[in-house]
Amino acid sequence: MTGRRKACSGLPFTVCSMQYAALCVMLLISFGLSAQNKGTVDFTAKKLPFVHPERNEIVGAKYLDSFFYKLYLLRTQGNSHIHILQIGDSHIQADFLSDKIRTDLQHDFGNGGRGVVVPLHVAGSNEPFNYKITSNVKCSAKRCVFVDQPMPIGLGGVTIQTTNDSTLFDIKTFNYPPLNYGFNKMTLFYLKDSS
């Protein structure tokens, strides 16, 4: 049975719409391309029917209209929240480009918090630079790239497990101006023990 325990309420998590994921992909591509300012590299890109570099536009941008309208309302009225979920793999896990997008949006529209953090270090993987989760015991872990392991896969592509009743987790956030990701409340997602 899956449980969702509200250890404390009120932690502002950033969770969102699929339409914003498309915007994030395009922004990530544009950030990557604009970072190339030390000369040029000649290459031939695969031609894709939805990419129109000569028009310099996002095809299907109308699907982002509701997102941009919500940003407009947030800017002009300031009394709402926008939840954003960015789905990805290792490029999201490292949090380099996604941090840039999150930081810029929070700078312009308000700090909604760091968002979901996953115990990647405890699971034997790399964590982003702005938080660290450690444990006083070694946990069994499953990452989504190892599909043959017997544990179910958890939120964020990681599952950790221990039978030690004295297990402790230390969650640290590292704050970098202008944002402060400190917190005093959290929501814990877990798989309830059947015993």
Report on this structure.
- The chain has 195 residues and is an alpha+beta fold.
- It is built from four helices and six strands; from the N terminus they run βααααβββββ.
- The chain has helices at 18-34, 65-77, 90-93, 96-109, and strands at residues 2-5, 131-135, 140-143, 158-161, 169-173, 188-191.
- Strands 1-6 form a two-stranded antiparallel ribbon. Strands 2-5 form a two-stranded antiparallel ribbon.
- The N and C termini lie close together (11 Å).
State mean pLDDT (0 to 100 scale): 76
Kindly state the percentage of residues in helix. 10-25%
* Number of strand segments: 6
Distance N terminus to C terminus? 11 Å
Low-pLDDT stretches are: 1-21, 31-38
Oligomeric description of these chains: single chain
What string, H for helix and E for strand, traces the elements in order? EHHHHEEEEE
Helix segment count? 4
Largest sheet: 2 strands, antiparallel
- Principal-axis shape equals globular
Order of strands across the widest beta sheet?
1-6
**Taking Cα atoms only, what radius of gyration do you get, to the nearest Å?**
20 Å
Strand content: 5-15%
Structural class estimated from helices and strands = alpha+beta
List keywords for this structure.
two-stranded antiparallel ribbon, alpha+beta, 4 helices, 6 strands, disordered N terminus, 25% helix, globular, 195 residues, single chain
Question: Summary?
Answer:
With 195 residues, the chain is of the alpha+beta class. It contains four helices and six strands; from the N terminus they run βααααβββββ. The strands form three sheets. The protein has a two-stranded antiparallel sheet with strand order 1-6. A two-stranded antiparallel sheet has the order 2-5. Strands 3-4 form a two-stranded antiparallel ribbon.
